[in-house]
UniProtKB/TrEMBL annotation:
Transmembrane segments: none annotated. This is Predicted PLP-dependent enzyme possibly involved in cell wall biogenesis. One of its GO terms (molecular function) is pyridoxal phosphate binding. InterPro entries: DegT/StrS_aminotransferase, PyrdxlP-dep_Trfase, PyrdxlP-dep_Trfase_major, PyrdxlP-dep_Trfase_small. The active site is at 186 (proton acceptor). One of its GO terms (biological process) is polysaccharide biosynthetic process. The modification N6-(pyridoxal phosphate)lysine is found at residue 186. It holds the Pfam family DegT_DnrJ_EryC1. It comes from the Bacteria. Belongs to the DegT/DnrJ/EryC1 family. It comes from Pyrinomonas methylaliphatogenes.
Length: 387
């Protein structure tokens, strides 16, 4: 049985008629860039999250970059980001000329360790970007309190957390702005790249909307030096269709995670933990193992695709060598990078497939234990092998 890490084709086939109709509307209207389908999605997604405004852009990375620019963050400023996240979180900070300042990961939640943020704040700090990683919300209350105490902007990176909730309220509705990605493999994925900036502030929304479209509100009239980072009409149409199913898909992801938890209980794996404040939407199902690479090889041999999110913490990436960080600076992020393994999880995954993944994992650990016992029995008291 071959089990893909993500099966986008299965999702597409289930919605084919609705998506074909939506794309046909775009073709009929010839609104290929922005247009009424993007505007429709912006209204629907803002209402879904609980924000006043949504501005569709070309990617999640573009969303972060435009949000930072709209907030006036640039050269000379510092922005606090997790050491354990996808590269784009820090990259967007660097691309506006600011400096990313890393904070270690929480051992249980994988998100930013809120107890270590304050020590990273100084006179140059302008903002904190908590990342709702793998579908798990960051612990926002203490982050928002720090923002209020020190006059810092809180920018939510919700690229992996569509529909996740913090203390009963959807993430993306807490910070001064929030940023989403609609990369195809996300819980809410487009048919290509896509992203959005959400905010309750009309002026911020206006600036982001201008910045995405060459700094203009009217064609050929440019108030700002902007960019070409607009959402395509087809992506808006596809996302509107898929948004209707997001809550249902998230419930399926949660059910799959629960089944994994039952079937993998008792193995040496460290299983993901839903924090007390969180409604986790399991964009990724991330386990930890000291034998990660060998386990991954065994799963691959059995036809099970896996991922590693992420194998190198951002502070150790060659691109950030100039910041002068060394191994050991953020030990928990480094430890996770060496141990994490993402197992297949998506709404269309079946119980049979989950059982097979768990079976391969259990067989691997049983074989490892047999090998350990055999090695121990084959050694003399002084540790040498018997002849």
């Amino acid at each position: 049985m071959n089990i893909p890490f993500v099966d986008l084709r299965a999702q597409h086939l289930a919605l084919k008629s609705e998506i074909d109709e939506a794309i046909a509307r775009v073709i009929e209207n010839s609104s290929f860039i922005l247009g009424r389908e993007v505007e429709r999605f912006e209204r629907e997604f803002a209402a879904y999250i609980g924000a006043r405004f949504c501005v569709g852009v070309s990617s999640g990375t573009a969303a972060l970059q435009l949000a930072l620019i709209a907030l006036g963050i640039g050269p000379g400023d510092e922005v606090i980001v997790p050491a354990n996240t996808f590269f784009a979180t820090a990259e967007a900070v660097s691309n506006v000329g600011a400096r990313p300042v890393f904070v270690d990961a929480d051992p249980a939640a994988y998100t930013i360790d809120v107890g270590k943020i304050e020590a990273a704040i100084n006179a140059r700090t302008r903002a904190i970007i908590p990342v709702h990683l793998y579908g798990q919300p960051a612990d926002l209350d203490p982050i928002l309190e720090l923002g209020k105490r020190y006059g810092l902007l809180v920018i939510e990176d919700a690229a992996q957390a569509h529909g996740a909730r913090y203390r009963g309220k959807k993430v993306g509705s807490f910070g001064v702005v929030s940023c989403f990605s609609f990369y195809p493999g996300k819980n809410l994925g487009a048919f290509g790249e896509g992203g959005a900036v959400l905010t309750d502030d009309a002026e911020i929304a206006r600036r982001v909307a201008m910045l995405r479209d060459h700094g203009s509100e009217r064609k050929y009239h440019h108030e700002l030096i902007g960019y070409n980072l607009r959402m395509e009409g087809i992506q808006g149409a596809v996302l509107s269709v898929k948004l209707r199913y997001l809550d249902q898909w998230n419930e399926l992801r949660r059910a799959h995670a629960a089944l994994y938890g039952e079937l993998l209980q008792g193995t040496p794996l460290i299983l993901p933990k839903e924090m007390p404040y969180a409604y986790h939407v399991y964009h990724l199902y991330v386990v930890q193992s000291e034998a990660r690479d060998a386990l991954r090889a065994a799963l691959t041999e059995a036809g099970v695709q896996t991922g590693i999110h992420y194998p190198v913490p951002i502070h150790l990436q060659p691109a950030y060598r100039s910041l002068g960080h060394r191994r050991g600076d953020f030990p928990e992020a480094e430890r996770q990078a060496e141990r994490v393994l993402s197992l297949p999880i998506y709404p269309e995954l079946t119980a049979e497939q989950i059982a097979r993944v768990a079976e391969v994992c259990r067989e691997f650990f049983a074989m490892t234990e047999r090998h350990r016992l055999s090695s121990a029995c084959g050694a003399n008291a002084d540790g040498r092998r018997r002849p």
